[in-house]
Every structure is written in C-alpha cells, then in structure tokens.
Specification:
The protein has 153 residues and is mainly α. Helix content is 80%, strand content 0%. It contains nine helices and no strands.
Length: 153
C-alpha cells in the first residue's frame, strides 16, 4: 500500500469520525481506483456504507474484500453485521461460523452469532454464545449485556 493511499484512508477515516460519509466515500473510491484490491479500503468503504444504512452496497463491498481475501475476519464480521441489520440472520450466522472456523477464539464472532441466534428465537443457543464470548473476553460488554437481557425475559 502506497503512502498516498495510506493518507487517503486516514483522511477518509477522519471524515467518518465526524459523520461526513459522502466525502469519506469519495476518498475510498479514489483509493480503490488506484488500488482496486485494497482490502482496507474495501472494508472501510463497506463500514461507511453500512453506517449510512446502505446495507446492500456495504455487503457488496465486503464481498469484494472476501473475494480477494476469503479468510479476512474483519470482512466476515462486518458482512455478518450488515446481513443481521438486513434481518438476514441465517446468512449472518454463516459469516460468523466461517469466522469461527478461522479463529476459534473470536469473541466478537461468538457475541454477534448470539445476537443473530436470539433474533431467530434460539435463546438458549444465544446465551451459550454470549457465555463463550465472555469466557474469551470477560470484559466484552455486548455479550454481557445481551446475555442479561435474555435472562431477564
């Protein structure tokens, strides 16, 4: 990755931090024009699109990253998150399962899978996944809060 691309991605990140998604997307597109297979640019573009609520384009960006790097955990977890937001829970679970085949101790994949399982009514499985996430990272707030919410119902 060139220094020029690094600067573009850093600047795009700054735009995202202040909620200026459209200028961030312009920079991601410019970076991808110069380096079409830049995984970081593809994933960050997907995250930005997801933040804007454009889930289908976000998923497409993650898919491009995964076509280049099929074992990229960031792309898998973000794609799963976008699918979950689009209420495609089973597809999201498949992304998390793939992530867990790559990294059996990925607390985020366990927690996110727990969320998707919970949405499909599989509450006991969801709790198991939250507990597994917490056994890996005891300070993982998402897993802890989600587990408590299910136990209260």
């Amino acid at each position: 990755m060139s220094n020029e691309i690094d600067k573009m991605l850093a600047e795009a990140f700054e735009y995202v931090e202040v909620g200026n998604y459209s200028d961030a997307l312009k920079l991601y597109d410019l970076a991808l024009k110069k380096e079409p297979e830049n995984i970081n640019a593809l994933i960050d573009k997907g995250v930005t699109l997801q933040n804007m609520g454009n889930l289908k384009l976000a998923i497409r960006s993650y898919d491009k990253a995964l076509a280049i790097s099929p074992n990229n955990l960031d792309a898998l977890l973000n794609k799963g998150s976008a699918l979950h937001s689009d209420q495609k829970y089973q597809n999201a679970i498949e992304c998390y399962d793939t992530a867990l085949r790559i990294d059996k101790k990925c607390a985020m994949a366990f927690a996110y899978k727990g969320l998707s399982l919970g949405e499909t009514g599989q509450l006991q499985d969801a709790i198991k996944h939250f507990k597994k996430a917490l056994s890996i990272d005891q300070h993982y707030d998402l897993a802890n809060i989600s587990k408590q919410v299910i136990l209260m119902h």
